[in-house]
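COMPLEX REQUEST
Ligand: 3,4-dihydroxyphenylalanine
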Amino acid sequence: MEALLQQIENYKQEIAAVEASTLEAVESFRIQYLGSKGLLKTVMGEMKNVPNEHKRAFGQVLNEFKQFVEAKFELIQQAAGGGTDNAKDNNFDWSLPGSFVPVGTRHPLTVVRNQIVSIFKTLGFAIAEGPEIEDDWHNFGAMNLPEDHPARDMQDTFYISQNPAWLLRTHTSSTQARVMESQKPPIRVICPGRVYRNETISARAHCFFHQIEGLYIDENVSFADLKQTLYFFVQEMFGKDVRVRFRPSYFPFTEPSAEMDISCLICDSKGCNVCKHTGWVEILGSGMVHPNVLENFSIDSNKYTGFAFGLGVERICQLKYQVNDLRLYSQNDVRFLKQFTGVM
Ligand code: DAH
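STATUS: Structure written out below.
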């Protein structure tokens, strides 16, 4: 033990005397003393030969020795003008402007989807999600759109070449089917997601877009519930002054069916391109769930009724933030995206 301590003292003197003025000399110091096969490692290795009762004291000596070698290294490195951060900083021009790290923003469609989801959450709707690659049954058949149904024409889509039984879902109504398959009433869900159509891309149409589906099934659900729920939603989304109207419509999966319009927020109902000079803009399709759809999932249509609706997120975003071209949402142009900085 004594001999070992003496040895370390000798090393210290040897190291203290080292002079290194070139970067090469600094590097060879590092290798000789601090390297993976250097002196420090060797001395540390002595620990295992030290009797247990001295290990603690020897540990302290080792620690000091290590600090001593490192401090010396730092010193000669600086003297040689070499590369610690501190040494570099001395030559750094602190007056230079900082480098800019751009912060991303939420995509406007995400912002709007979150707003819609949180409104329906306050009404007790749970979130359900379904696959974007669907089969014919969930997308069409179960929703009362059998093969050769003319309404399929309006929802042409993309088929998967390896397996033509698979397609890209054309609406989030397919998630209704998935939910009814796995849950018993009462059911109260909203289903956000991306959908696809075989459309030529333009300012007003795209081959993919986003929808939010709603489904509420219980005993005694009526059309009045549907109207009140959707009226509440638009008031929360667009403010109390917004007016709504329901127009009779047709969807195979609902009976009766209605489309809901809201007063045009772009021109304050005075007439513009967005509302096609009518003062009204369609924002969603809705209706009472067709008994055939309920029965497809063994839900007793004499006992249960329900309403459903499907809205387009892009359309809501267009009205809320005056986005006039659908293509903007997927072009990744930061001039567009950064306008939503800080919008939650
Ligand atoms: N799936 C329809 C579409 O994409 C929208 C829709 C209409 C959904 C009426 C519904 C509904 O749930 O009841 O055009």
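REMARKS: DSSP finds twelve helices and nine strands in the chain. The chain has two domains: 2-90, 108-340.
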